[in-house]
Design goal:
It is built from 20 helices and 13 strands. The protein is an alpha/beta fold. The chain is globular, with a radius of gyration of 27 Å. The chain starts with 7 loop residues before the first helix and ends with a helix.
């Protein structure tokens, strides 16, 4: 039979679900458009940095003509000992590029690079697949290893890649998986031979749809389920959703009398019966009574670097780079607005952020946030990094009031919130026809991950582009704190 071309990424997709490969080939337009550019960029940057771990190396440039990469690898393999990055091989139509190949006189060592901070099961399949290809070409594989991020590493002024990366020896695991790899490859080929364009394979909805990665074809494979369904219940654990699904309890009507959490039943009830908003005025008044002037409505934006860019920071540490602050100095006073946005080239972002915030919130009024955990954790981290600021960070944390609590506890709930207490669901539920509060109408940035990605890329932009992006960041963050002001006003309105 004609064997399909597999790569290590395609093989790993099939380990998760063989139908992904069929859908990729015959229905690629059915994939949900999900911006993974930032993830790919992170992986690429980490991979490039790791290439220098073993000294000088010879790199194979990517070429759509895979044969050219394989031929270049063959040439370089003769110059042993050497280090080859993206060394490319094929066996029986199974192709792989090895991130780092130590090509010694007595054999080779495989190093797969990941931007993760831990060893995941799917990485074992990835490394074992490469072992399969190279060993079947007659290469003596001395070691097969995974290189990944050490998230305990704290950067000094200079980056130390020997400390940034961990290396895990997976040689024995890779060897033990060889029979499994061979069987899987045969099954994948049989599957694709059996199911051509006009013979779509059966869809099996199971936990593998999200493990190890959320499948881009989830919406396609669940297109015939009733709407809303068990997978739309906010907060329910995924395994519980699948349990109900396999019991045939799929639609909200199926679930309305089930013995499940009351919050899930409440979401179902409000959806099915179009209930009026539920407002616990006593609970909301208690929260309002805890608020003291001056009132500081504040929201942070943060970003993460897999490769720490700032001294004293760890990989993937949350770096607060921006805040918006709406202030009501006293009862009846007009609202003031202040904001901070770090410079893209600033090497002291966290301290400058903290000092600006301390200056803008000098008094012991209430600090209003939406989801206390995030801001409070960042403040504690700042206090640990800069002991001279710890007292001020503790003062601010001691004044925090979490505006999310009434929604999380369902003291205030409407059908439109769809079981969620995210501000992106709550705000349009409270103000459905206010264009000023519509995140969709913002010019460029509409959610937190877009803000993070925009800031990370800021220094690579032209001055004109930087100005446009910075304005969009300020616009987005300002709406977050305006949203909190409007929620506070709604609380006052419904409790009058």
């Amino acid at each position: 039979m004609n064997r399909i071309r597999l790569s290590k990424s395609r093989y790993c997709k099939c380990v998760q679900c063989k139908k992904i490969l069929w859908l990729d080939k015959y229905k690629p337009e059915s994939a949900t458009e999900d911006n993974k550019e930032a993830i790919f960029e992170t992986g690429k940057n980490v991979g490039e940095l790791a290439k220098g771990l073993f000294g000088d190396y010879e790199d194979i440039d990517f070429d759509k003509n895979l044969s050219a990469m394989i031929e270049k690898t063959d040439e370089l393999m003769k110059n042993k000992p050497n280090i080859i990055t993206e060394a490319s091989f094929t066996f029986n139509n199974n192709f792989c590029s090895v991130d780092i190949l130590k090509n010694d006189d007595d054999g080779v060592e495989i190093y797969e690079v990941k931007s993760s901070t831990k060893v995941k099961d799917i990485y074992l399949d990835d490394v074992a697949y490469q072992y399969f290809v190279l060993s079947n070409l007659g290469l003596n594989i001395k070691k097969a290893c995974l290189i990944y991020i050490n998230n305990e590493y704290i950067r000094d002024d200079e980056l130390d890649i020997s400390q940034l990366f961990k290396i895990e020896d997976l040689t024995e695991t890779a060897r033990q998986k060889q029979a499994e790899i061979r069987e899987n490859i045969e099954r994948i080929n049989d599957f694709m031979q059996t199911h051509d364009r006009d013979n779509e394979p059966e869809t099996i909805i199971e936990k593998h749809c999200f493990d190890p990665y959320s499948c881009d074809f989830w919406d396609y494979c669940t297109r015939d389920l009733p709407k809303p369904n068990v997978f739309d219940i906010s907060g329910m654990q995924r395994r519980s959703k699948f349990k109900k699904y396999h019991e045939g309890k799929v639609s909200f009507r199926d679930l309305e009398n089930e013995r499940i959490n009351r919050k899930y039943l409440e979401q179902i009830d409000f959806e099915l019966n179009d209930r009026e908003p539920k407002i616990d005025k006593y609970a909301i008044r208690q929260l309002l009574d805890s608020i003291r002037y001056p009132i500081y409505f504040i929201d942070y934006e943060s970003c993460q670097y897999a490769i720490p860019e700032l001294p004293k920071t760890k990989p993937y540490q949350q770096i607060p780079f921006q805040y918006s602050l709406h202030i009501i100095p006293e009862k009846g006073a007009p609202i003031e607005h202040k904001e901070y946005l770090a410079e893209a080239e600033d090497k002291n972002i966290i301290r400058n952020f903290a000092e600006a915030m301390i200056e803008d919130m000098p008094e012991d009024g209430s600090v209003i946030v939406y989801n206390k955990t995030f801001e409070a954790t960042r403040n504690r981290e700042i206090g640990e990094m800069y002991p001279d600021l710890k007292g001020e960070m503790e003062r601010i944390n001691g004044n925090i009031v979490d505006l999310m609590v009434p929604f999380r506890q369902r003291n205030y709930y409407t059908k439109e919130m769809q079981g969620s207490y995210s501000i992106k669901k709550v705000l349009p539920a409270l103000y459905p026809d206010d264009p000023e509060l519509d995140y969709g109408k913002l010019s460029m940035i509409h959610k937190g991950d877009e803000a993070s990605e925009a800031f990370v890329k800021l220094k690579d932009k032209t001055p004109e582009e930087q100005k446009e992006i910075r304005n969009a960041l300020l616009e987005y963050c300002k709406l977050d704190t305006l949203a909190m002001v409007k929620i506070w006003e709604k609380f006052r309105e419904v409790t009058d």
